[in-house]
Write a structure and sequence with these properties.
Chain lengths: 66, 212
């Protein structure tokens, strides 16, 4: 169940069928719920800040930040 | 015509642009600073960090940049208007929004960057606690985040330079950088300061050293 505002994204029918199949098997309530879950996980890879402290430590060791 | 009007309005709002040289540490930012200094631009540096074996021609740094993430007082960045300031990519997010920034962003092969950083850590007697694969992953994601940051910042323009191309074709790169910064820079002088002998930790050498 999606509660926020939604918008439409077009995807190839073949991919949709595959998503539907996996969503069914994995127990998701709907394809939308499954796709949202996948996209949020993928976005996290780009937007996440985990590891920033490791970068900070390296940059501090290199003398580029205080 | 639209560009001229935009430029006029931008200057009225922000004053002269702050030219920022950025990139991951050890990606050729000091080389680009040297090129822009040779081009006749005013470089903002306090020369606190002196040349060493990792950067024999100097770092061109300004110490307060290192505090950008922690220091709430960023008013000093205004002093860099019309000048060139080196800011590593990790600190671009901390630049104050009351200036217009023209960023010359230097990219270098990520394996070369990590190898060069590791060597520098060793020279400085610092421990390297991040394994190379993780460092590559984090830096690549960080570079993407920089692009996302720039794309949503109306007061930032960015020009990307490839480090290896700058070494191999310094004059061509100098011309592109000059055009990005409004033209009229001494591109011959810029090209002349590129020292190919300082291109160390090349990918092909790294591959050879790990395969033997």
């Amino acid at each position: 169940m999606l509660f926020g505002k939604t918008t439409n994204v077009k995807i190839e029918k073949d991919i949709y069928e595959r998503l539907k199949h996996v969503a069914d098997v994995a127990g998701y309530a709907s394809v939308e719920e499954f796709v949202t879950h996948i996209l949020e996980r993928e976005l996290q890879k780009f937007e996440g800040t985990d590891g920033d402290d490791a970068i900070r430590e390296k940059l501090r060791g290199l003398g580029y930040i205080s | 015509m639209i560009g001229v009007v935009q430029e006029y309005l931008r200057k009225r709002k922000y004053g002269p642009a702050v030219v920022v040289v950025s990139g991951l540490p050890r990606s050729g930012t000091s080389m680009m600073m040297k090129m822009l200094e040779a081009a006749g631009l005013l470089v903002m540096t306090d020369a606190v960090r002196q040349a060493d074996e990792d950067n024999p021609k100097g770092y061109f740094e300004y110490e307060r940049v290192k505090d950008l993430e922690k220091d709430p007082d960023k008013a000093w960045v205004r002093e860099a208007r019309g000048r060139v300031l080196k800011v590593i990519s990790f600190l671009l997010k901390d630049l104050p929004p009351d200036n217009f920034y023209r960023i010359v962003f230097v990219h270098r092969d990520i394996d070369e960057v990590v190898a060069s950083q590791n060597k520098m850590l060793h020279h400085r007697g610092e421990e390297n606690r991040v394994d190379d694969e993780e460092a590559r992953r984090l830096f690549q994601r960080h570079l993407l985040q920089v692009k996302m940051l720039v794309s949503r910042s109306p007061n930032v323009e960015m020009f990307e330079v490839d480090h290896r191309e700058a070494i191999q074709h310094p004059r061509a790169v100098a011309e592109k950088v000059s055009a990005f910064l409004g033209g009229g820079l001494d591109v011959d002088a810029m090209a002349a300061v590129v020292d190919r002998t300082l291109y160390r930790n090349r990918k092909e050498d790294l591959a050879a050293s790990t395969s033997t």
